[in-house]
Design brief:
Shape of chain A: globular
Number of helices of chain C: 15
Oligomer: heterotrimer
Low-confidence stretches of chain C: none
Radius of gyration of chain A: 21 Å
Strand content of chain A: under 5%
Distance between the termini of chain A: 58 Å
Chains: A mainly alpha (about 325), B alpha/beta (about 425), C mainly alpha (about 350)
Mean pLDDT of chain A: 85
Order of helices and strands of chain A: HHHHHHHHHHHHHH
Largest interface: A-C, 53 and 48 residues
Strand order of the largest sheet of chain C: 1-4
Structural class of chain A: mainly alpha
Structural class of chain C: mainly alpha
Largest sheet of chain A: none
Chain lengths: ~325, ~425, ~350
């Protein structure tokens, strides 16, 4: 096989893996949008906040240490414990559930029935607030996140492909783990949505708020639940990206990577988020590989959007979005 | 209550009245935003040094020191706000800390006659002091960095890198593009092949770039990275098992923040440095004694001796030394903004003086003149050891290749002069 | 008492359809203009102009532009930063290529260039709606920034890729570059703002504005009553982009003076301007001003109160500032989802009936 083709295959697989990570972020958007029609701009900040909380809990950081020290003149920084990852994850999930409850209770309870753009704006306010809160609680320095995920080249694939193609493929172990986790996550979400009482209620709410309300589904409960699940998804995304780069502000910008995925897959479809993620991942990596060198590289940021844009022109509701039926 | 709030609001919009009885310096720090994690240690080091002088010596030459800190979040608009808010207070010198803010402040500060000191960043051609009268970028600039990076490669290859392939992974912004011209000129001279790999802000995702490096196997990789781009790049280099000792970052890609997330395998990663990167200097005992232990430290005190802390401290030290020089020239302790520019222009950092300050060998000795605002461009290479969690300098400080850089400086500063109708002038 | 239609008789159609039909409103409007043009210029210093007035005025133009597109025509756009960059780079190319031509011409031409680019990126709006369109306009944002960063011709092959605005004068008074007087740049921008607001106000009151609003309220119904969605949507994109382009041109040439595209005209700018019009009020010219004022003044005010007034550490103040801004946005939306403009409208309504509301 010619070298270029082999390379392209390698890029293709890496694109798939990157796509899985994008899809993980997009998933959180879809969950909330489907259940409540809120386009949650704060999803990226939630991922950052969750990852910060996880590191903070695991390392025994004192929340608001800087503020306390500045106001009281004390010198507290650490509780002096180091917790195993699992404990940290469980406590972070609890924090995210409390956060979901607060968000519902304090903000969206008062905004029921508002236009989508107002709800969107409210999540922007939420994003600002959480950005400040996260920094104030845990400090804005970079933090190393280590929950024991493997990282680095997968040697087995490297060797196996070397024997076949004379060129070892690079696949990151972390990406493989992320893929497995993403599949498990989506699988359990689907099972949850299909086979549990709460899951069915959630789907009912997504279909029609009023009908669901009239058969006795608590909208409030469902929305808190959805925000909690989205918080959990944000945590998973935060762990994956944070392991790679350390936990710091830019983690909140991964939301931008999820937007074209949403456009492509449709805002309301979980499989759409996955497929959209894969298409964007593969598309942008292959484009950078094939066309990038000709036009100076760093095309990934815009290519995803242009790809999604072109697709939307032909299919305005995204690949898997619900067909918009308009009545006059 | 209402009245109180109102007056607080009014006070909020008014810049405070100038107090001229002390030496006022500014600290345009960025402790928040995308680059905040790098801004914190720098700002801590910068402020702690001023605090040290104040606490230990009672100021500079008998004058007490006032430092106005202003948060820019690395954002140009906030930077302008900070500049305008503080310039009325008789600030002697500004260090904008961001390329964007620097470019904005150059014309403004020139019109206002206030010194700008951009240490290891900013507009490289400001080295030509005949045109940039009040802008100083000693002791080293990006083009020096690029040149010394290549010199280091020459050193480890016995002076011959013909036919080698050197990749530059850079932040796709004004900052990241700085070294390209120099590297292109140098590649003509030394016959290596240059490969450019831009990474868009923020640089959280760099798989494409590193797969390309893995495929094309450049012999060396240089990096002009910033923010999250650094740890991700180092992690990806570890992932593709790129030999870390062939991977050299600029000084802004060489702090503990950048290498720690990648763990043990980052050992061997190199970065350029224009000052010492460890904490084995007597001055740190003083900082501990007078600043940290008395609870006056700007940060939590845990950053002392890290690379960026050192850089902030070094920056403050150069500024205060320039202020001393200015006091000496002006013959009075209460210097003006114009005196300060003269102080910068006559600054001479000798080894003996550094020794006196408790910083013997912390940085190279150099001197500034009107023609040369950039020092001698002495840069060394530091290497990371993850086991000891320490950076250490592994080469000598060496000067950049001025035969290549000088024409570039002349060209760029000439363009600036032509744009603004300036003529070179040293009187 | 004094805020009444009573006794204010219109005797011509012209009088009846004027922008401020109530006398008091009209006088207030003249008073604001007089203060803005004749009094404020004498009180200004560098700080007030560069930290408060210039950003406020320039963002107001951008907000008016986006409000035409989003508030009046209902097309959500997140490409504002990219379009501002087009305006900035267009003026840069024009003012370096034709130094002898007046800045006013350059800025208007830059607006025209941006309008053209805006129409180009507005084409997908004929097929895509709502949030899908919002995200689609991000394609413009990222692509334009990449382009300006990538192609050296745009920044005249300068070493670092930054663009710097050289000094240009108007009637012999410098308005760009380093040696500007605060009052000169203030007045220069104020003229643009005033004209933009008047033009925008009258456009939105006229046939064109009504077409836009018909499209916003229900595009299919609008089509049936004879509004051509193609021309309506594209004209909204063109005019909106024109204003955004003018604001980008002023932002670069008068306010900042040096620009690096990714940093200054990044995605954050797009979001910021969108926040302005939502907080200020969609579909309201006054709302554009109110929103711009809110988001420009509030951070500066908070910073000064917290850091200068109360002596907090700057980083804590910055974090708290984020929290307060976020909190206020949420409070605003809960109290009045239609923005400051709606509060203003309600206040005027109350004032009309005051002191006998029943």
């Amino acid at each position: 096989m010619p070298d270029q083709l082999i390379y392209a295959i390698e890029v293709f697989f890496n694109g798939l893996m990157a796509g899985v990570l994008y899809a993980l972020v997009a998933l959180g958007f879809v969950l909330i949008y489907k259940a409540s029609g809120i386009f949650n701009y704060a999803q990226g900040v939630m991922a950052l906040f969750a990852a910060m909380t996880l590191v903070g809990v695991m390392e025994g950081q004192v929340p608001f240490a800087h503020l306390i020290n500045a106001v009281l003149g004390t010198k507290v920084h650490h509780f002096g414990w180091h917790l195993p990852a699992l404990v940290g994850i469980v406590s972070t999930v609890l924090v995210m559930v409390v956060l979901a409850w607060l968000v519902q209770r304090v903000i969206f309870k008062h905004l029921v029935g508002q236009e989508p753009i107002i709800l969107f704006m409210a999540t922007i306010g939420l994003a600002y607030f959480m950005e400040g809160l996260g920094d104030m609680m845990w400090g804005s320095e970079i933090k190393k996140l280590d929950v024991g995920l493997p990282q680095g080249i997968n040697l087995w694939i490297d060797e196996a492909t070397y024997n076949i193609f004379d060129y070892g493929f690079f696949i990151d172990n972390l990406d493989i783990v992320a893929t497995i986790i993403a599949i498990t996550l989506v699988g359990s979400l689907v099972i949850f949505a299909q086979y549990t009482k709460e899951g069915r209620a959630m789907r009912a709410v997504a279909d029609d708020h009023q009908a669901a309300l009239s058969v006795g589904v608590s909208l409030n409960f469902i929305w808190i639940m959805v925000w909690s699940v989205a918080g959990f998804v944000a945590l998973v995304a935060g762990i994956m990206w944070g392991t790679k780069s350390g936990v710091q502000f830019s983690l909140s910008l991964i939301a931008l990577k999820a937007l074209p995925v949403l456009m492509l897959g449709g805002f309301t479809s979980i499989p759409g988020a996955i497929v959209g993620g894969l298409i964007i991942g593969v598309g942008e990596k292959l484009f950078e590989f094939l066309v990038g060198p000709l036009i100076g590289g760093a095309t990934e940021n815009w290519f995803a959007y242009v790809l999604a844009l072109l697709l939307l022109v032909f299919r305005p509701q995204g690949l898997f979005g619900e067909k918009i039926i308009e009545r006059v | 209550m209402k009245k109180k709030l109102l007056s607080a609001v009014i006070a909020g919009f008014m810049a405070a009245t100038p107090v001229m009885a002390e030496l006022t310096f500014s600290a345009l720090s960025y402790r928040t935003g995308a680059y905040g994690n790098n801004g914190i240690p720098f700002a801590d080091g910068y402020l702690d040094y001023f605090t040290l002088l104040q606490e230990r010596d009672g100021g500079i030459g008998g004058e007490s020191i006032r430092v106005i800190e202003c948060e820019t979040a690395y954002n140009t608009e906030k930077g302008v706000e900070c500049y305008e808010a503080t310039k009325g207070e008789g600030v002697l010198s500004y260090s904008p800390l961001s390329t964007g803010i620097t470019y904005q402040l150059i014309p403004k500060a020139t019109a206002d006659g206030i010194a700008l000191h951009t240490m290891g960043y900013g507009r490289t051609s400001a080295k030509n002091g005949q045109i940039f009268r009040n802008v100083f970028n000693f002791p080293a600039n990006y083009w020096d960095g690029a040149s010394v990076g290549i010199k280091h490669l020459l050193d480890i290859n016995n002076g011959d890198i013909k036919g080698k392939k050197v990749a530059l992974v850079y932040h796709n912004s004004a900052y990241g593009k700085e070294p390209i011209r120099t590297l292109e000129e140098l590649s003509k001279k030394h016959g290596y092949e240059l490969m450019l790999l831009p990474v868009d802000h923020p640089g959280q995702e760099q798989k494409s770039q590193w797969l390309q490096i893995r495929r094309e196997k450049p012999d060396y990789v240089l990096m002009w990275g910033w923010g999250v781009m650094n740890p991700v790049a180092i992690q990806e280099a570890v992932n593709i098992r790129y030999p870390m000792e062939n991977f050299i970052g600029v000084w802004w890609s060489g702090s503990e923040n950048d290498v720690l997330p990648a763990g043990d395998k980052a050992t061997g990663y190199k970065a350029l440095a224009f000052h010492a990167v460890n904490s084995d200097f007597p001055i740190f005992d003083d900082i501990k004694k007078y600043v940290v232990d008395t609870g006056k430290a700007a940060g939590a005190g845990d950053q002392v001796g890290t690379v960026l802390y050192n850089r902030g401290m070094y920056n403050a030290m150069l500024i205060t030394e320039a202020a001393r020089k200015a006091q000496e020239i002006a013959g009075k302790s209460n210097i003006s903004q114009a005196d300060m520019i003269k102080g910068f222009e006559a600054l001479e950092m000798t080894d003996a003086r550094m020794e006196e300050l408790g910083l013997g060998g912390f940085g190279p000795s150099f001197s500034v003149s009107c023609e040369n605002h950039g020092g001698d461009g002495m840069v060394a290479v530091a290497q990371w050891d993850a086991g000891a969690a320490k950076w250490s300098i592994v080469s000598d400080f060496q000067a950049s290749d001025m035969s290549v850089i000088q024409p570039l400086i002349d060209e760029d500063s000439g363009a600036f002069a032509a744009e603004n109708n300036l003529s070179p002038n040293c009187s | 008492m004094f805020y009444r239609e009573a006794g204010d008789f219109s005797t011509t159609y012209r009088e009846d359809s004027q922008t401020f039909p109530i006398k008091f409103d009209r006088y207030r409007y003249y008073a604001v203009l007089i203060i803005a043009f004749a009094i404020i210029p004498f009180l200004l210093n560098d700080y007030w102009v560069n930290a408060i007035f210039l950003p406020f005025l320039i963002y107001s133009i951008a907000a008016i532009g986006l409000n035409i597109l989003t508030g009046y025509c209902g097309q959500v756009s997140l490409g504002t930063g990219g379009f501002m960059a087009v305006g900035a780079y267009a003026t840069y190319k024009l003012m370096t290529a034709f130094p002898e031509v007046s800045m006013v011409v350059h800025i208007l031409l830059a607006g025209g260039v941006t309008a053209f680019v805006g129409v180009l990126f507005g084409l997908p709006s004929l097929r895509i709606k709502g949030f899908y369109l919002a995200v689609a306009t991000l394609a413009a944002q990222f692509f334009l920034v990449w382009l300006f960063n990538r192609v050296p011709w745009f920044y005249n092959y300068s070493a670092s890729g930054q663009i710097n605005s050289p000094e240009r004068t108007l009637f012999g008074i410098p308005i760009t570059g380093a040696n500007t007087e605060p009052w000169a740049v203030y007045l220069f921008c104020l003229v643009f703002v005033t004209i933009s607001a008047v033009v925008a106000r009258n456009l939105t009151r006229g046939a064109m504005g009504r077409k836009w609003m018909a499209i916003r309220d229900m595009d299919i119904a609008a089509e049936i009553i004879g509004v051509n969605p193609l021309t309506a949507k594209l004209s909204a994109f063109a005019i909106s982009s024109f204003f955004v382009g003018v604001s980008g041109a002023l932002f670069f040439s008068v306010y900042l003076g040096a620009v690096e595209v990714g940093e200054v005209f990044g995605i954050n700018k797009s979001f910021l301007v969108l926040f302005m019009i939502i907080i200020g009020g969609l579909g309201s010219i006054f709302g554009s001003f109110a929103g711009a004022a809110f988001l420009v003044l509030l951070p500066v005010l908070l910073k000064n109160v917290l850091v200068t007034g109360l002596g907090w550490p700057t980083d804590l103040a910055a974090h708290l500032e984020f929290m307060i801004v976020g909190f206020l946005i949420i409070v605003f939306l809960i109290v009045e989802p239609h923005g400051i403009a709606q509060l203003w409208r309600v206040a005027k309504e109350k004032l009309r009936l005051w002191p006998f509301p029943h």
